[in-house]
Amino acid sequence: MSHAVPQGIFITGTDTGVGKTVIAAGLAVLFRKRGVNVGVMKPIQTGCLSRRGARIAADARFLIQAARADDPINQVCPYRFKIPAAPLVAAEYEGVKIDLHRIEDSYRRLSMRHGVTVVEGIGGLLTPITPTAAVIDLAIRLNLPLIIVAHIRLGTLNHALLTVQGARQAGATILGIIFNRPGRSPRDLAEKTNPGVFSRLCSVPVLGTVPYMEGVSVEEGRLGRVGMLGQYLNEGLHHLGIKLDP
Prior knowledge:
By secondary structure, this protein is an alpha/beta fold. Helix content is 36%, strand content 20%. The protein has one domain: 3-Layer(aba) Sandwich (Rossmann fold).
């Protein structure tokens, strides 16, 4: 069965700090290496540093570097806030009202220039963006299928299953889940068994299990082994419309 490359993919996580940016960058490299004109987007970033009066969105810059894109930063990352908090909190702190229409317009412009656009969310699906909209609402408005990134540690089954449940209740399409290991820690029984147990309990495809990637630093712009992501997704690539190498 053949699968078409979707126009865009929304990368979400079971929590903050699970490695969404690294996985999104790895997917961008993967598409680019397969000859796809790939764009990237990080609609909202909080916890930005300031340099010469400009907000530096490290995640967005990392994605741009991975995709080798030349799109304007104001389209790739329309909202950049200083406070490391949920978008609703960070925006209110700065007296800014986040306009989802502005994000939609930026995504539309990017998608017109690229065959596929990898969009990275912020936090988890219920992370609030405005008083009436969360991350899942943005994904639905952009009409993008989801890839869920989950930390492989103990406790992830609960977080992953809740994320799947919430996405399905909202009417989102889920392409699959990637279990990621963003740090160095000894492997325990939970890490060894979580992907298999998840597969037994849930019909969402496990696209792959990604080990800790050496030499990667989002803050310092070091891609390290990000380009090796494809070898860890294995058969899961066909769910993304990417042909496996012979």
